Amino acid sequence: MKTLINGKKITLFILLAAIILTGLFFGFSNNNINATDIKILQDGDKPAENEIWLDKLTFIPKMKAIKVGTKITWINKETAMHTVISGAPNAKSGLFESKTMGEGGKFSFTFTEPGIYKYYCGTHEDMMTAIIIVK
Question: How far apart are CA 135 and CA 128, in angstroms?
């Protein structure tokens, strides 16, 4: 009786191992993901001094302090379409508004007055908001 139970355990183990290996080799190897679809920020990958990135459905950084006269450039780093609009959702300030930007799209604005400037993405206004503090 012990040999039969041990034999069943071994058979079950081999069957499970075969299923897992088959899934790993065939089922999970083709998820329609290409190496070019995967973007991982490497150490040192960050916006330059006067840049703000639109990436992973957020502004990077979300808050930035600058001096009067600084030109900020927003760069869309992902495939999602984005805009940059001054003010808050449902309360545009009218100071600046980009066109819709695809991946690699850029928009620049020079801040000439001190203040606290809110802005958001018009496409993702519930998720993407940020602030620039101009001194």
Answer: 23
